[in-house]
């Protein structure tokens, strides 16, 4: 079997220039850890998905994730392969991340957090 035919059979995923993981965890508002969902993540992630789809770029992926462990700073997203963590708070922040970083290759410094490990 040829390599091309084999990859079709295996359905090997595309390699992405950027892969964005967004926390969709929803805890009750009074939860001591907080959560991205309780901090308004859903409309931001919806906007991100629509912007990425509208871009037509098949080399950028978005994946919903569970807790990314920095709950009180949320909404949280991380962009790989760079490992850049963002805390967008508004639709305009999402637009800037998409335009500047994901499409333009320049991270948005003002929205980056550096998680303490």
Could you name the key traits of this structure?
Thioredoxin-like_sf, 117 residues, Glutaredoxin, alpha+beta, 5 strands, Ferredoxin, 2Fe-2S (AaFd4), 3 helices, 18% strand
Order of helices and strands: HEHEEEHE
Look at the structure and give the mean pLDDT: 88
Order of strands across the main sheet: 2-1-3-4-5
CATH architecture annotation name:
3-Layer(aba) Sandwich
Task: Quickly name the level 1 CATH class.
Answer: Alpha Beta
Largest sheet: 5 strands, mixed
Give the structural class: alpha+beta
Number of strands: 5
What is the CA-CA span between the terminal residues?
A: 46 Å
Number of structurally distinct domains: 1
**What name is given to the CATH topology?**
Glutaredoxin
* Proportion of strand residues: 15-25%
Number of helices: 3
Shape type: globular
